[in-house]
Specification:
By secondary structure, the protein is an alpha/beta fold. About 45% of the residues lie in helices and about 15% in strands. The structure holds 2-phosphoglycolic acid (PGA).
Length: about 250
């Protein structure tokens, strides 16, 4: 059995100014600077990435929440991969359900962003997940399978092994109503099987798959106990320093 290092990523969404990001860093650095055994990431708005990289301990990586797939060009308002890497950004969330729902993100643009990020050495955190109607219709496996296959199109085996997938059932995001750990593990096991079908068992054994949706310090332990869940992507529960620290320590 492959050992996969757990990864906890905060997703701040559209929260925090630069001053607030600095304050957050000052509050978590001391506690987390020597933490090992878990990869720690904070995915923040573009406007605070530089200040966050400067003020956070080196033990905590910085991620963005979106990226464009072009090298550069006439794309008003967009941000290219190399603009992120220059700031020391190492991760990027791609295809979050809010971006799919409100900003016309499709399986095709998600895939182009994944490929462009990998080329630039940015690690994608690719989000997949079903909505409530799809779940109730019994389509969960088919939905996450389609999204996973599309996202990984054109990625080599090595690239696929290096990236992170976040399984986030849409009905669990920001609702306080998380999936049960057992249900989340079942879907994540299916995603891992899809990766095995696309590549091989070794790649499936290496790829890290997180759960996301109403994770907090009180329930992180339940998810981490599951064999296929390699960490969490956390929105609301990542905003307060004490809660972020609680999530990290909850990994054990
Ligand atoms: P939540 O958000 O933790 O606030 O439910 C998760 C996410 O959207 O990544």
């Amino acid at each position: 059995m492959q050992h996969r290092k757990p990864i906890i990523a905060g997703n701040w969404k559209m929260h925090k100014t630069a001053a607030e990001a600095k304050e957050f860093a000052a509050s978590v650095n001391q506690e987390l600077k020597n933490k090992t055994g878990v990869e720690m990431v904070v995915c923040a708005p573009f406007t605070v990435l530089a200040v966050l990289r400067e003020s956070l301990s080196d033990s905590i990586a910085v991620g963005a929440q979106n990226v464009h797939f072009a090298e550069e060009g006439a794309y008003t308002g967009e941000i290219a991969p190399r603009m992120l890497t220059e700031l020391g950004v190492r991760y990027v969330i791609i295809g979050h359900s809010e971006r799919r729902a409100y900003f016309n993100e499709t399986d095709e643009t998600v895939n182009r962003k994944v490929v462009a990020s990998l080329v630039h050495g940015l690690t994608p955190i690719v989000c997949v997940g079903e909505d409530l109607t799809q779940r109730e219709a019994g389509d969960t496996f088919a939905i996450v399978e389609g999204q996973t296959r599309a996202a990984l199109t054109g990625a080599t085996k090595e690239q696929a092994a290096s990236l992170v997938i976040a399984y986030e059932p849409i009905w669990a995001i920001g609702t306080g109503k998380s999936s049960t750990a057992e249900d989340a593990n079942e879907v994540i096991r299916h995603i891992r099987q899809v990766v095995a079908d696309l590549y091989d068992q070794a790649t499936a054994g290496q790829i890290r798959i997180q759960y996301g949706g109403s994770v907090k310090p009180e329930n992180i332990g339940d998810f981490m106990e599951q064999p296929d869940i390699d960490g969490a992507l956390v929105g609301g529960g990542s905003l307060q320093p004490a809660s972020y620290i609680g999530l990290i320590h909850g990994v054990k």
